[in-house]
Write a structure and sequence with these properties.
- This protein folds into 2 domains: 2-43; 54-105, no CATH class.
- The longest helix has 10 residues, at 64-73.
- It has 4 helices and 7 strands.
- The protein has helices at 29-37, 64-73, 84-92, 96-105, and strands at 2-5, 9-10, 17-18, 23-25, 41-43, 54-57, 60-63.
- By secondary structure, the protein is an alpha+beta fold.
- A 3-stranded antiparallel beta sheet has the order 4-1-5. A two-stranded antiparallel sheet has the order 2-3.
């Protein structure tokens, strides 16, 4: 994890002097906690990249969120924490009427 130095300090292991603004890569979680608790450094929060999950359905690609919302709108089970395979299984289990309603909800057929 990366931390940013906010106060001058000397590393107790290497003896190296660190100045405010420097960024350090530290693997030891206890060491990070020590530096943060003594207000010598602060954690740098790196936002995780969200990988938009695309699901192929009816010869088109849809965002997982879009498919979940469409399933819910027609009264079927759907949640973001479901695996893609489970969502597709729910879709294939639909009868013709519900499948048509799902297509309308996804904007495929009007």
């Amino acid at each position: 994890m990366k931390v940013k130095v906010i106060s001058v300090f000397r590393d107790k292991f290497t003896g190296q002097l660190y100045n405010p603004g420097e960024v350090l890569e530290i693997e030891d979680e206890a060491r990070i906690e020590d530096l943060v608790s003594r207000k010598l450094a602060e954690r740098i929060v790196v936002p995780e990249e969200k990988n938009e999950v695309k699901i192929s359905l009816f010869e088109k690609e849809f965002d997982k969120k879009e498919l979940v919302e469409a399933l819910k709108s027609i009264g079927e089970k759907g949640a973001m924490n479901m695996k893609e395979e489970t969502l597709l299984a729910n879709v294939t289990a639909l009868d013709e009427e519900k499948t048509l309603a799902l297509k309308k909800a996804l904007g495929i057929e009007v």
